[in-house]
Amino acid sequence: MQDISINGLSGLSYLPGYFDRAGQEDLLDQIRAIVAEAPLYQPVMPKTGKPFSVRMSNCGALGWVSDIQGYRYQPVHPGTGQPWPAMPDALTHLWGEVAGKAPPPEACLINFYDQGARMGLHQDRDEQMFEAPVVSVSLGDTATFRVGGLSRKDPTKSFRLQSGDVVVLGGEARLAFHGIDRVLAGTSTLLKNGGRINLTLRRVNPA
Ligand code: MD6
Ligand code: FE
């Protein structure tokens, strides 16, 4: 586990290779079963309706959604109206290992990146509980992750996230701006057709 200092903020941890290849394959099988039930869909930005370049789904009690009305957490898939599938045990276990005293995660956002997809600089701030960290898992092709400070104008650092890597944004870095600049094609054999999956675990409501 590496603690990375960014703009003087503590609380950003990087755990390279947290999941070994067998662990990544197990997790991927479970994500495939989840998206068979709760299909990936292309969300749009609030107000403008501009589509995201990533496709999304969720698992856990709550899922993060974005549509013309805004960003929010909700208990059902916006297309099927069905509850989100359960969160895999491996993810609840990961949270127990890295999230300190935080209550269990309620939501796991699944982001799928095709070649060319990216994620603009943003803060994760739709939760009612910033005391709990956000924990991310990367699967598939390597991505360039950029992280800055509490203001969008703060300087940023970028580093590569490989399949199996975990990032924790907690403490002072919980609200740091971050994003994905690009996905590097052909860097992993985990997904047959390439691309990248990112899972972010969140606690939404106070215990
Ligand atoms: C991604 N990650 O890796 C996007 N958010 O595809 C995030 O937006 C993120 O990695 C909160 C905490 C860690 C993250
Ligand atoms: Fe984020």
List the helices and strands and how they pair.
Layout: E1 2-6, E2 9-15, H1 21-37, E3 55-60, E4 63-67, E5 70-74, H2 89-98, E6 107-113, E7 119-122, E8 134-140, E9 143-147, E10 157-161, E11 166-169, E12 178-183, E13 196-202
Antiparallel strand pairs: 1-2, 2-11, 3-6, 4-5, 6-13, 7-12, 8-11, 8-13, 9-10, 9-12
This protein binds N-[(3-hydroxypyridin-2-yl)carbonyl]glycine (MD6) and fe (iii) ion (FE).
The site of N-[(3-hydroxypyridin-2-yl)carbonyl]glycine has 12 residues, from strand 8, strand 11, strand 12 and strand 13.
- Per the CATH scheme, the topology name is Jelly Rolls
Low-pLDDT parts are none
Task: Tell me, rounded to a whole number, the average pLDDT.
Answer: 97
CATH-level-2 architecture:
Sandwich
How does the major sheet shape up? 7 strands, antiparallel
Count of folded domains? 1
CATH class, named Mainly Beta
Number of helices: 2
Series of secondary-structure elements, N-terminal to C-terminal: EEHEEEHEEEEEEEE
Oligomerization state of this entry?
single chain
Please state how the strands of the largest beta sheet are arranged side by side: 1-2-11-8-13-6-3
Give the N-terminus to C-terminus distance in angstroms: 27 Å
Shape: globular
The helix content is: 10-25%
**CATH level-four homologous superfamily name:** Alpha-ketoglutarate-dependent dioxygenase AlkB-like
Bound molecules: N-[(3-hydroxypyridin-2-yl)carbonyl]glycine, fe (iii) ion
Extended strand count = 13
